[in-house]
Amino acid sequence: MSSASVKPVGIDLGTTFSAISYVDDGGAPRAIPNPEGAYVTPSAVYIKPDRSIVVGQKALDALSERPDRVAVNFKRDMGEKFYSEPIGGREFSPEALSALVLKRLAQDARNELGEIGGAVITVPAYFGDARRKATQDAGRIAGLDVIDIINEPTAAALANAFQQYINLGGDQSDLSIARIAARAPSTTMVYDLGGGTFDVTIIRIDHNDFEVIATGGEVRLGGIDFDQRIVNYFCDEFRRRHGIDPRDTPETMERIRATCELAKIALSDSEQTVLICEHLGRKMQVPISRARFEQLTADLIARTQISTEMLLEDAMLSWDRVDNILLVGGSSRIPRVSRMLSEISGKEPEMAIAPDQIVSHGAALHAAISVHDRAEHRASTSTQSTAARQERRLDSENALRLQDDEEEQRVMQSIMAADAVDAAKRIKLADVNSHGLGVIVRAKEGQGTANSVIIPRNTPLPTSRVKLFGTEAKNQRQVRLRITEGDTRDPRGCTQIGECLIRQLPKGLPKGAPVEVSFRYDASGRIHVKAIELTSRISADVQLERTSGFAQEDLNKMKDAVSEINVE
Description:
Blueprint: E1 7-12, E2 17-23, E3 29-31, E4 41-42, E5 44-47, E6 53-55, H1 57-61, E7 70-72, H2 94-113, E8 116-123, H3 129-141, E9 146-151, H4 152-167, H5 178-183, E10 186-193, E11 198-206, E12 209-218, H6 223-242, H7 250-266, E13 272-279, E14 282-289, H8 290-296, H9 298-315, E15 324-328, H10 335-345, E16 350-351, H11 358-397, H12 404-425, E17 428-430, E18 437-442, E19 449-455, E20 463-470, E21 479-485, E22 495-502, E23 514-521, E24 527-533, E25 538-544, H13 552-563
Parallel strand pairs: 1-8, 8-9, 10-15, 12-17, 15-16
Antiparallel strand pairs: 1-2, 2-3, 2-4, 5-6, 5-7, 10-11, 11-12, 13-14, 18-19, 18-21, 20-23, 21-22, 23-24, 24-25
Helix pairs in contact: 2-3, 4-11, 6-7, 11-12
């Protein structure tokens, strides 16, 4: 890559902090600093009374004075219609708020690099389809060319493997990174405890494959939940001493939260620290030890332990089959995390180099590889086309001209063969579905409806599954399939993501007439559903694509509105 080339970027769009990186001319991933010189930017948006927008640390600083005008943690609401709280008296979608953060990151990148190319944006592996669509929409609203949406643990594993490759003497300017996987074969568990989400994923790296074996976690578990335990500890003590509860005053609470977050960070290095906060003119100091913090958060650590142990069961692995445990995310620095993992695995977890940046590094590598592969593909196609033109010219000179359709077919076959060779050289990022896919069916008499899972979670992609059902009534004229994402039997714990309707069934079908339902889930995230009533052979099918949660017209309007906003 030349210094003048337009570089793609990788973005870790986090709950509490976000980061953006690129691959430099030497082939190394680099995080891009914001104007304050930091490599991570708070995912906070301040909408000032004059309607100007501030994103980042200054927005976070405004939280204690104007909590009604600052949005934080909106990544947790991705996939919902609106952010959980009105901002300045107005409703905002999580996508719009996320787009403002992405726009600020893109501005920082342009200040560093000039023009930027496409972007790869990461999401928690445990994000469902609606949340992934919302993240993709946020990128488009921000005016970014979204190359891909990839899982955070996969990005972290890619960046970690790349570092191992360099340590073993690999050429970091070589973007044919099948060599990376060949140099760093392993089965890695990525334990990612971020600010607002928790993921644990097992990835097998072998030859030119990065294969996700299984993934688990919780969308609403992260560092802010650990902070809240310290907040409650302080507020309970303040109320005990003074008879006043600071939780009744939003402005005070934001200052207390900031203090408690700093205390959590301090307890990663020290055995004890002191909480100092003021409320209604009453200043109070409350000491807190690391041991007390661990007592307060024991159940949160236990939840991550349960997810981790369930993941091993899903993957049908024992700890001796896991080569290393990689810690990612700022809250993975909590000492109890490493101790817990060491106790249950018998292995010493490895803290990722720059755990707050490694995900954006991996996304940047994926972006650079994608652009590199596209360029190679275009060059290969161009070479084939040039060769074909030269051959046609020679054929013409020798009066041995081929028929146009025969010639076109031969050229296309040659191009396809070259593409197949090129694809074999490229790295393969194999994934699994993070949530089950199924349909809602009638349960036993008097028991209402149930979710029947057809593709269980952690099934390697692509995959196809078939299941047989029966009509629920005599002379039934249509079958309506409600397609779900989720793993619970209770449909209320699942998300309906589409419908498939068989119409105009013949009269006289008996109750229980067989209906075959087939699901096909491809590697790019498209879900194909087909239903056939086997007696009449009448069928219906639907394809669910991870494209956009908004109508294109609405998306364009939001994009235009954000493009006119000056983000500070």
